[in-house]
Design a protein that fits this description.
18 strands, Laminin, mainly beta
């Protein structure tokens, strides 16, 4: 028993390398164990074979696709993505994420155009009634170019971004469909001293003997 006690008391005291050299495990946490120490490495580092050093992990080399739509730059314990135009690094994600320029108002589409997000960019399209490349849109004159839907018996009036249809005199309707108005039936007092004859868009008077039509044919005199 006395021999064992003497042996124990002869052992040199353990040296706490972690306390003596706080930076001994740069990139990790030092754990003291009898006679030595070990490094428990943080994310972005890996232990050496003897577990006494933390080595930087080159994420760019380890995963070539880690910065899709950008360039990867290794840094100590981590990496940096330098994103292509139209992409950015979003908080809580790795790699490059497409920027929705339409959503955040970072586009230059005309106010009369719609914005559509695309991968790394966006597209502008002029709204109906407007023409252009989407960056600049001008009014489309449907009345002049014949793309309107007005009735043949209506007048087309161009408006900004659209047009209106008005039935011509002698016709009634919404402008897209115009029917002939029977003036003779609507007003039996027309063509006094004669007979009223309805014609498309108007009427004319056939006068009794002894009377002649006025120059416009709308009355007898």
């Amino acid at each position: 028993m006395s021999v064992l006690v003497n042996v124990l008391f002869c052992l040199p005291p353990d040296i706490d390398e972690c306390e003596d050299s706080p930076d001994i495990c740069d990139g990790g946490q030092c754990t003291n164990i009898p006679g030595e120490y070990q490094c428990l490495c943080f994310d972005g580092f890996m232990s050496s074979e003897d577990m006494k050093t933390c080595l930087d992990v080159d994420e760019c080399e380890l995963n070539p696709n880690i910065c899709l739509s950008g360039n990867c730059e290794n840094s100590r314990g981590s990496f940096i993505c330098h994103c292509d135009k139209g992409y950015s690094v979003r908080k809580g994600t790795t790699g490059c994420t497409d920027i929705n320029e339409c959503e955040i108002g970072a586009h230059n589409c005309d106010r009369h155009a719609s914005c559509t997000n695309t991968a790394g960019s966006f597209k502008c399209s002029c709204a109906p009634g407007w023409i252009g490349d989407g960056i600049k849109c001008t009014d489309l004159d449907e009345c002049s170019n014949g793309t309107h839907m007005c009735s043949n018996n209506a007048d087309c009036l161009n408006t900004m971004g659209s047009y209106r249809c008005h039935c011509k005199d002698g016709f009634s309707g919404d402008g897209f469909y115009c029917s002939d108005s029977d003036e003779c039936a609507d007003n039996v007092n027309l063509c006094e001293s004669g007979n009223c004859l309805n014609v498309p868009g108007g009427y004319r008077c056939e006068c009794d003997m002894g009377f002649i039509p006025t120059p416009d044919g709308k009355a007898c005199e």
